[in-house]
Amino acid sequence: QVQLVESGGGLVQPGGSLRLSCVGSGFPFSMYYMSWYRQAPGKERELVAGISSGDRTDYADSVKGRFTISRDNTKSTLYLQMSSLKPDDTAVYYCARGDRRAWGQGTQVTVSS
Questions:
Q1: Residue 89 φ then ψ, to 5°
Q2: What pLDDT is stored for residue 65 in this prediction?
Q3: How far is 77 from 12, CA to CA, in rounded Å?
Q4: What's the CA gap between 94 and 74, in Å, rounded?
Q5: Which of 20, 67, 91, 103 falls between 20 and 30 A from 12, CA-CA?
Q6: Buried b vs exposed e over 50-89: b needs ≥16 C-beta within 10 Å?
Q7: Residue 41 and residue 113: Cα distance in Å, rounded?
């Protein structure tokens, strides 16, 4: 059974940092492009960052220089290090397999003072 489980969300003040994790199982994690998406209230889900099996990374313009995506294939785990967080980063964050046929349940990130 293919499964993605996120963790690490929470409430953080503007300018703060959080690290999200996503553990994959039931498929050959190391072979897949993996992504983080987010969905804010009233908005469409958007791609935040992606990483290939060879560690090539892609970022949305809105997070470049602030977020870092990485992976540990030995642990089948995807990470998103988020720094200099802004209220506009508030959303539910989802990890997804590159073919978008597997999604996590989402983790809430709230940036507020």
A1: -80, -5
A2: 97
A3: 23
A4: 21
A5: 103
A6: bbeeeeeeebeeebeeebbbebebeebbbbbebeebeeeb
A7: 18
Count of Cβ atoms closer than 10 Å to residue 91 Cβ: 22
SS3 58: strand
Q: What is the pLDDT along the chain (113 residues), one digit of tens a residue?
A: 999 999 999 999 999 999 999 999 999 999 999 999 999 999 999 999 999 999 999 999 999 999 999 999 999 999 999 999 999 999 999 999 999 999 999 999 999 99
CA distance 17 to 89: 11
d(CA 69, CA 60): 11
- What phi and psi values does residue 50 have, to the nearest 5 degrees? -145, 160
